[in-house]
Amino acid sequence: MGHAPAQAADADPFADIAGIVGKSWRGEGTGPDGKPMVDQSRWEWALGGKAVRITHILGDLSYGGETLVFWDKGAKTMIYHYFTTAGFHTQGVMRADGPGKLVAEEDVAGHPKISKVRSTLTLKDGVLTNQAEFLSDGKWTPGHTISYREAATADLPPFPKAR
Quick one: pLDDT band at residue 99, thresholds 50, 70, 90? Predict the structure, then answer.
């Protein structure tokens, strides 16, 4: 009686970003208005390692959000949903472009001006760089550029209470 051939285990869809997850990051850069900004983020495994949760908050506590990244096996891509303290949210797709590099494209809902965001995250020599651009009124414009280094503490400040 024959045996079915052994099938290779599915590749880990998060393998290329595993070096980012399980850490907190402190970033400095410039916002879309050209002014300096500080952002703190924590990347952690969620759903028993089936997803990644990213929580971030600006240094002045004026804005933050949470993202849940999940592998869509049928579409063979990472999908994500991002919810913000400003009341808008996004959903998009993310793909690894080699070890330590992510390319993301998202649709924005509920923002008065921005309808899409595309960004690239790159981890090189311990520095995580996030470059984004925004689509507004049919035109792409530079967004923020932030360079993160691993934070000394894993804790983020709490979001200001809305209620």
Answer: confident
The CA distance from 163 to 144, in Å, is 30
Using one digit for the tens of pLDDT, what is the confidence trace for 12-21? 999 888 889 9
This prediction's pTM: 0.89
Q: How far apart are CA 19 and CA 2, in angstroms?
A: 42
Nearest to 93 by CA among 85, 84, 83, 103: 103
Choose which CATH entry (3.10.150.10, 2.40.128.90, 2.40.128.20, 1.10.12.10) describes domain 21-150. Answer: 2.40.128.20
The three-point CA angle 83-85-90 to 5° equals: 25
